[in-house]
């Protein structure tokens, strides 16, 4: 586990498609191929074994925290240390650790709803609570949502001003993952926040991947975060931690969030493995993210060139120049064909260019499959030409699989 793991881009809903037994068998095959591969763009979190993780925490943990101190109990010790570190990084007075981002955002939005007296949350229909949380905002927290836009991008200031009914909170996902990890410009973001203020609304940032937005915005994390009243960040996505999230904001808000965290079952007895992995991610991966973002543009250019050389009639890299170190690729083939081709390429050549493909894309045309590409430390070794060559190779496997069908 020389490189920090990234998440594998598979939501619970996506993993549960198809037969459970067949899905598990195919998943284990993919993981085995990824583990054996010697050329990858990023290492997925599912590739690490428990033994590997335990060795990393034991061997590298002392570089970020004293492992001979008392173990954490209900959020003290290393968890408190992590909370102070995150609050400092984002320029807020306080932070609270949560076992999941879903819980953190449920709590944030219900806290703001109580303070504004308005249970309506304005957010994009592709935002995480709408797509990946089984309707929890309504079912658990009693909140209702409205959508300023249905376009495959974040809303504009005019669209926020044009929402037909009052809303208490505007939630902005930065970047908007299911639309292609897209971001607005800095000026557009400032205008959107100002538009929400004009509507007497509070602003919450879903910053699960906020860590890698600094390059696109040309601003540091505190300057980005201070636009919002509260921010949620994840530790297991771009930072490669085990699990967990943090909610940052004013002290009174964080204290209220802690109370709701307890009510939601989030006051966990001991959380030192997750907290320690998060601290390692902040120390090791956070400084590297700008280099990943820069190289994602190189990889994206190599992909486009490769599709051209392979004479692929239609393809799309979205965004054309990635806003972060993650982006989408679209191809007009069946997702199961593309996934099988990707696995065979990994098994037979030791190169992992793509991982899983899925049907459809809310941000794209019908009849295409979409995959997510992440560029992390291993991806820095790839040149654009090598990426292009791997694309040509991949399309050969695609044709092979289609002939068999």
UniProtKB/TrEMBL annotation:
Q: Where is the composition biased (Basic and acidic residues)?
A: 11-28
- Specify whether Glycosyltransferase is a keyword of the entry: no
Report residue spans for region: Disordered.
1-29
Q: Which residue range or ranges hold the Aromatic amino acid beta-eliminating lyase/threonine aldolase domain?
A: 75-304
Q: Which UniProt keywords apply?
A: Pyridoxal phosphate
Gene3D superfamilies with a match to the protein in the record = Aspartate Aminotransferase, domain 1 (3.90.1150.10), Type I PLP-dependent aspartate aminotransferase-like (Major domain) (3.40.640.10)
Q: Which GO terms describe its cellular component?
A: cytosol
Citing just one GO molecular function, the answer is: L-allo-threonine aldolase activity
**Names of required cofactors:** pyridoxal 5'-phosphate
Domain of life of the organism in this record?
Answer: Bacteria
Keyword rRNA-binding part of the UniProt annotation = no
Write out the coiled-coil annotation as residue ranges: none
- Which SUPFAM superfamilies is this protein grouped with? PLP-dependent transferases
Sorted alphabetically, which Pfam families does this protein's record hold?
Answer: Beta_elim_lyase
InterPro entries per the UniProt record, alphabetical: ArAA_b-elim_lyase/Thr_aldolase, PyrdxlP-dep_Trfase, PyrdxlP-dep_Trfase_major, PyrdxlP-dep_Trfase_small
* GO process terms (BP): glycine biosynthetic process; L-threonine catabolic process
- The UniProt regions of compositional bias labelled Acidic residues, in chain numbering, are 1-10
Entry-linked PANTHER family: L-THREONINE ALDOLASE, L-THREONINE ALDOLASE-RELATED
Family from the record? Belongs to the threonine aldolase family.
**What is the name listed in the Swiss-Prot or TrEMBL entry for this protein?**
Threonine aldolase
């Amino acid at each position: 586990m020389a490189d920090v793991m990234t998440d594998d881009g598979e939501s619970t809903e996506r993993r549960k498609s198809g037969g459970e037994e067949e899905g598990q068998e195919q998943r284990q095959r993919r993981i085995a191929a990824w583990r054996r591969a010697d050329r990858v763009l990023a290492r997925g979190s599912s590739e690490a074994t428990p033994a590997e993780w335990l060795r990393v925490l034991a061997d590298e943990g002392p570089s970020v925290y004293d492992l001979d101190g008392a173990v954490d109990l209900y959020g003290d010790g290393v968890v408190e240390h992590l909370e102070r570190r995150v609050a400092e990084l984002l320029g807020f007075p306080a932070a609270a650790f949560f076992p999941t981002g879903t819980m953190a955002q449920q709590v944030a939005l219900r806290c703001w709803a109580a303070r504004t007296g308005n249970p309506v949350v304005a957010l994009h229909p592709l935002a995480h609570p709408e797509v990946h949380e089984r309707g929890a905002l309504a079912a658990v927290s009693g909140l209702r949502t409205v959508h300023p836009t249905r376009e495959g991008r974040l809303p504009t200031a005019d669209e926020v001003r044009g929402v037909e009914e009052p809303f208490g909170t505007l939630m902005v996902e930065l970047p908007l993952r299911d639309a292609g990890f897209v971001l607005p410009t800095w000026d557009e973001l400032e205008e959107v926040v100002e538009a929400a203020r004009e509507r007497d609304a509070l602003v919450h940032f879903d910053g699960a991947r906020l860590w890698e937005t600094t390059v696109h915005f040309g601003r540091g994390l505190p300057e980005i975060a201070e636009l919002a009243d509260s921010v949620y960040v994840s530790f297991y996505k771009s930072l490669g931690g085990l699990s967990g999230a943090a909610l940052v904001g004013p002290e009174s808000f964080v204290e209220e969030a802690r109370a709701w965290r307890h009510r939601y079952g989030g006051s966990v007895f001991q959380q030192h493995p997750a907290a320690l992995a998060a601290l390692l991610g902040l120390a090791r991966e956070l400084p590297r993210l700008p280099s990943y973002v820069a190289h994602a543009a190189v990889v994206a250019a190599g992909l486009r060139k490769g599709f051209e050389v392979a004479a692929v009639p239609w393809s799309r890299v979205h965004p054309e120049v990635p806003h972060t170190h993650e982006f989408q690729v679209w191809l007009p083939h069946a997702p199961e064909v593309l996934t099988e081709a990707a696995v065979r390429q990994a098994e037979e050549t030791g190169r992992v260019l793509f991982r899983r493909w899925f049907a459809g894309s809310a941000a794209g045309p019908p009849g295409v499959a979409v995959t997510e590409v992440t560029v992390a430390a291993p991806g820095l070794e790839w040149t654009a030409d090598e990426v292009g060559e791997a694309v040509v190779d991949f399309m050969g496997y695609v044709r092979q699989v289609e002939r068999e069908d």
